[in-house]
Design brief:
Blueprint: H1 5-27, H2 33-44, H3 61-76, H4 81-108, E1 112-115, E2 118-121, H5 124-153, E3 155-161, E4 166-173, E5 188-192, E6 206-212, E7 218-224, E8 228-233, E9 236-240, E10 243-247, E11 259-261
Parallel strand pairs: 4-11, 5-10
Antiparallel strand pairs: 1-2, 3-4, 3-8, 5-11, 6-7, 7-10, 8-9
Helix pairs in contact: 1-2, 1-4, 1-5, 2-3, 3-4
C-alpha cells in the first residue's frame, strides 16, 4: 500500500482542527485560530508513529492521552486544571465518535459514487473532510456577520461642538470602558487624533487623563472639554458634557468608527 505522507499529514491536520474547533464551541470559549492550528499541526505529527518504527511507548494509550492533553493545553492556553481536563475529555469523546462514524461508513458503504451515469472513485474521507472545512467556514462567516450586526448597533453619530467649529464622528460604545477625567469626574470620549488635528487647546482647557490597560501598562491621555457634544439616536440627539481625549492610534482597523464612547456617557 502506497502512503503519501503529505496527504496523510494534511488530512490529520484538518480532522484535528475540526475536533478542536467543535470542542471550543462546546465549551463556548473563543480561541485564536493560530493556536488551534498549532495544536492541530502538532497532533497531526503523531500519525508518523504509525508509519515509522518507534518504541512501543509511543503507541500506548497513556502516550495518546498525553498527546491529546498537550493539544488542548496549546489550543486553549488556560491554567485552569479542571478546564483542561474537561476540554481533553470532550476532545477525546469527539475523536472516538468520529472514528466510529468513519468505521461505520467504511463498513456499510461503497468507496465509489456514480454521477450522471459516470463512475467516479471517491473515498468517504474526502466527503468528511469537505464537510469539516465547509462547516468551519460557514460557522466563522455566521459569527462574523453576527459580530458586524452587534457592532453596528453600538455605533453612534456624534457631533463635537467647540467655539470655532463642529466635527462629526462615528463613535463605538465601549461597554467595558469607564474612563473618566479625575478633576471634573466627566466621562471621556476617545477620538482619533487626526480627526481633531485642527482643534487648538488653550492652557486652561487642557486635561491629562491617566489610564491603565489590561496588560498593566499606564499612561496619560491629552484632552479638552468642548462646548457640548451631541449624541444622535436616529433623528433625535442628547447633549452631554464630557472630555474629548486624543488617540494616537487608529481605533478601528476597518475604519468603521473613529471614536470610543465610555459606558458613563450613554
Amino acid at each position: 500500500m502506497v502512503v503519501y505522507l503529505d496527504i496523510l499529514l494534511l488530512e490529520n491536520l484538518i480532522v484535528n482542527f475540526f475536533l478542536l474547533y467543535i470542542t471550543a464551541q462546546t465549551l463556548r470559549i473563543y480561541i485564536k485560530l493560530r493556536y488551534m492550528f498549532l495544536a492541530a499541526f502538532l497532533g497531526s505529527l503523531y500519525v508518523l508513529t504509525l508509519i515509522y518504527p518507534v518504541p512501543k511507548i509511543f503507541s500506548s494509550l497513556i502516550f495518546k492521552l498525553i498527546v491529546a492533553c498537550l493539544m488542548t493545553i496549546i489550543c486553549f492556553r488556560k491554567k485552569d486544571l479542571n478546564l483542561n481536563l474537561k476540554a481533553t475529555a470532550i476532545f477525546i469523546i469527539y475523536s472516538m465518535m468520529l472514528a466510529g462514524l468513519c468505521i461505520f461508513i467504511e463498513f456499510y458503504n461503497s468507496k465509489s459514487l456514480t454521477f450522471d451515469g459516470g463512475f467516479i472513485n471517491f473515498s468517504y474521507k474526502y466527503i468528511l473532510i469537505a464537510f469539516f472545512i465547509s462547516y468551519m467556514v460557514v460557522h466563522r462567516l455566521i459569527i462574523y456577520v453576527k459580530d458586524r450586526k452587534e457592532i453596528t448597533k453600538l455605533i453612534y453619530d456624534v457631533e463635537i461642538i467647540t467655539d470655532n467649529n463642529a466635527k462629526k464622528v462615528k463613535a463605538f460604545l465601549d461597554t467595558g470602558n469607564e474612563l473618566r477625567e479625575p478633576a471634573t469626574n466627566l466621562p471621556v470620549m476617545l477620538v482619533d487624533k487626526e480627526i481633531l488635528e485642527d482643534v487648538k487647546i488653550g492652557g486652561g482647557n487642557k486635561f491629562y487623563i491617566p489610564y491603565k490597560v489590561i496588560d498593566g501598562s499606564k499612561g496619560l491621555l491629552v484632552g479638552f472639554k468642548p462646548t457640548t457634544v451631541n449624541i444622535y439616536n436616529g433623528d433625535t440627539y442628547t447633549s452631554r458634557d464630557m472630555i474629548i481625549a486624543f488617540s494616537d492610534h487608529r481605533l478601528s482597523e476597518l475604519n468603521e468608527y473613529n471614536a470610543l464612547l465610555s459606558r458613563g456617557i450613554i
